[in-house]
Design brief:
Layout (H helix, E strand, L loop, with lengths): L22 E5 L2 E4 L4 E4 L4 E5 L4
Antiparallel strand pairs: 1-4, 2-3
């Protein structure tokens, strides 16, 4: 997705930390191109860390 029209596009997701393992996890996202019937991985990734807060 090298088109300039997507340069400011963003994505957002909300989920429970309980669905992730303890420690660091890398989250990636894909977009589906229905014309070519393929998924395209988005360039950015997000690193999150789940720690025991006790």
């Amino acid at each position: 997705m090298k088109s300039k029209k997507y340069s400011r596009a963003r994505w957002k997701v909300t989920f429970s930390a309980k669905s992730l393992p303890m420690g660091e996890t890398v989250i990636n996202a894909w977009v589906y191109n229905s014309d070519k019937q393929e998924f395209i991985k988005l360039n950015d990734e997000v690193k999150v860390r789940v720690e025991n807060g006790l």
